[in-house]
């Protein structure tokens, strides 16, 4: 199945995380647990923000968008692992593989873009608190969110177009647990130089360097402002509002840079499985925990909804 004598393929074979039979059940249970935690945590945030007017603020508006992105990205990737574990069928059609590449790339872009917007939101909240409501009004929030969603899909489209133009493959065995861009590129016997150049120009410069610089600039101003606060309690409170965001930014960018901006090799593809699992599993699980579920406003909203439900029942 591996050697196709340089022909076009109609389906791919997903290798998965491990070929060891004894590990299949533990992997299936772990993936199912991660997926359920991702859906549960992010859906909780989504419902609380929608139902509680106290959370109708710009910060939680962007968190809702981030929760949607996390649920979608986990569904696109982890459901493939779950289907493989349940049915034992590791094949995926060519069109499904291309769709998976498209949607996964789209949601990674969205994660990076919304994190950039959220860093700007924290900058305005901490550095210009008196003008925060005026600057981050409903129109501005809707505009920023719309730009993120449109720009995210536009950025991945050239990659998908180039991949669909591949005329032949040396193999149809994808060394991953879903159809990711780099493993599919590795299989192609077509000229991938244009795609690799696009990786450097758009992936490294436009999608990585520019948002990173915007985040760094935002946090330079944020940290400078925090250090000027006279009371330790005030500094601690201000730092608390942005420390969680900074943690996710560092984790996500570290894994993505190590995963996508290195030369492609068999060893790098094996390591990419771990980093992909962090991006599609760990980060979506951590986002609700470190962003919202430990936040006193979210806890208060959760208690209000629980008490309201109990009152209605009794």
Topology:
Elements: E1 11-14, H1 24-51, H2 58-87, E2 91-93, H3 94-127, H4 132-135, H5 138-164, E3 173-174, H6 181-187, H7 193-228, H8 232-260, H9 266-293, H10 296-313
Parallel strand pairs: 1-3
Antiparallel strand pairs: 1-2
Residue fraction in strands: under 5%
Structural class: mainly alpha
* Helix content percent band: over 70%
Q: Element order, helices and strands?
A: EHHEHHHEHHHHH
Spatial extent as radius of gyration: 21 Å
General form? globular
Q: What is the number of beta strands?
A: 3
Q: Are there runs of 5+ residues with pLDDT below 50, and where? A: 1-5
Mean pLDDT: 81
Strand order of the largest sheet: 2-1-3
Q: What gap, in angstroms, lies between the N and C termini? A: 62 Å
What kind of sheet is the major sheet? 3 strands, mixed
Q: Count of helices?
A: 10
Oligomeric grouping of the chains: single chain
């Amino acid at each position: 199945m591996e050697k196709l004598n340089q022909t076009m393929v109609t389906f791919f074979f997903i290798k998965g995380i491990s070929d060891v039979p004894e590990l299949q059940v533990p992997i299936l249970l772990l993936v199912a647990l991660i997926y359920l935690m991702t859906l549960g945590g992010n859906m909780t945030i989504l419902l609380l923000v929608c139902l509680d007017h106290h959370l109708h603020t710009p910060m939680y508006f962007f968190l809702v968008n981030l929760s949607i992105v996390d649920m979608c990205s986990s569904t696109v990737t982890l459901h493939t692992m779950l289907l493989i574990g349940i049915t034992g069928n590791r094949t995926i059609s060519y069109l499904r593989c291309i769709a998976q590449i498209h949607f996964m790339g789209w949601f990674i872009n969205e994660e990076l873009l919304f994190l950039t917007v959220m860093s700007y939101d924290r900058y305005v909240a901490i550095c210009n608190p008196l003008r925060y409501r005026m600057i981050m009004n409903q129109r501005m929030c809707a505009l920023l969110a719309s730009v993120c969603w449109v720009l995210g899909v536009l950025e991945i489209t050239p990659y998908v177009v180039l991949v669909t133009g591949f005329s032949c493959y040396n193999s149809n065995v994808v060394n991953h647990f879903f159809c990711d861009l780099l493993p599919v590129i590795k299989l192609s016997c077509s000229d991938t130089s244009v795609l690799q150049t696009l990786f450097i120009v758009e992936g490294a410069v436009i999608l990585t360097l520019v948002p990173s610089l915007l985040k760094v600039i935002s946090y330079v101003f944020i940290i400078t402002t925090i250090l000027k606060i006279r009371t330790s309690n005030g500094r601690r409170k201000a730092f608390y509002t942005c420390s969680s965001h900074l943690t996710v930014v560092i984790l996500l960018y570290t894994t993505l840079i190590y995963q996508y901006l290195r030369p492609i090799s068999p060893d790098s593809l094996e390591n990419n499985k771990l980093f992909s699992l962090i991006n599609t599993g760990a980060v979506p699980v951590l986002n609700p925990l470190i962003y919202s579920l430990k936040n006193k406003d979210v806890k208060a909203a959760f208690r209000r909804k629980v008490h309201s439900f109990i009152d209605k029942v009794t």
